[in-house]
Design brief:
Elements (H helix, E strand, L loop, with lengths): L1 E5 L3 H13 L3 E5 L2 H10 L4 E5 L7 H10 L6 E5 L4 H10 L3 E4 L4 H16 L6 E4 L3 E4 L4 E4 L2 E3 L3 H12 L7 H7 L8 H14 L6 E3 L3 E3 L5
């Protein structure tokens, strides 16, 4: 799962980034609002963590811009601002949650997990039932069959998360390349090899493909 972090306090930024990476998230970090905005238009992020008072473009302006362009990526503001007018403005512009500085890293962890459940699963719990007869924990990014954990590599976990979070829709090769391989050059044959390895560990029916369109994993109704 790929997150964007915008924070101009270097110590704060490095601490948050290190902690979230220890939890398995991919973090792209920025100190400048314009740089962060450019990255959002280039890359696919599952969640944005934004300070408000940053150089070039504030967290308010950034969210206003992306919401006007129909980008609904969930947003958490991290800020020392406590005035009710500031908080109200953030929600009016389209943020999803606030955390007031200083905060515990674990608080940020729980806020992120709640937004992930809200935006990337229709389930009330962390567990998603997948066809045929698989269970997926969307927070821990773990795949099970009959309560037995299937051992996946980091790259395979990213592929599964990408397919599951797109809710029964086919995911193109280009989107997989962007979300999983971060736009690094990788040929389609290498992506097919990765898909095959996942199928070998699960079943041939676990990942469905349609030539010229892409791949998907179906959820149970």
């Amino acid at each position: 799962m790929r997150l964007l972090l915008l924070e101009d306090n270097l110590d704060y930024k490095d601490t948050i980034k290190e902690y979230l990476e220890s939890l398995g998230y991919q973090i792209d970090d920025f100190e400048d609002g314009e740089d962060a905005l450019n990255a959002i238009y280039i890359n696919k992020y599952h969640l944005l963590i934004l300070d408000i008072k940053v150089p070039s473009l504030s967290g308010y302006e950034l969210v206003k811009t992306i919401r006007e362009d129909n980008n609904n990526t969930p947003v958490i503001y991290i800020t020392s601002l406590t005035d009710i007018n500031n908080l109200s403005l953030g929600y009016e512009l389209g943020c999803n949650d606030y955390i007031k500085k200083p905060f515990s890293p674990k608080e940020l962890k729980y806020r992120i997990e709640q937004l992930i459940k809200l935006f990337y699963t229709d389930e009330s719990s962390d567990q998603i039932k997948l066809k045929p007869n698989f269970t997926y924990n969307i927070l821990k990014r773990e795949l099970f069959i009959n309560n037995t954990l299937i051992n996946l590599t980091k790259k395979e976990k990213r592929v599964v998360f990408c397919l599951v979070s797109n809710k029964n829709q086919f995911v193109s090769i280009d989107k997989l390349r962007n979300d999983v391989w971060e736009d690094k050059y990788i040929c389609e044959a290498d992506i097919r090899v990765c898909i095959k390895k996942i199928r070998d560990k699960t079943s041939k029916e676990f990942i469905i493909n349609q030539r010229g369109i892409g791949y998907k994993i179906d959820r149970e109704k």
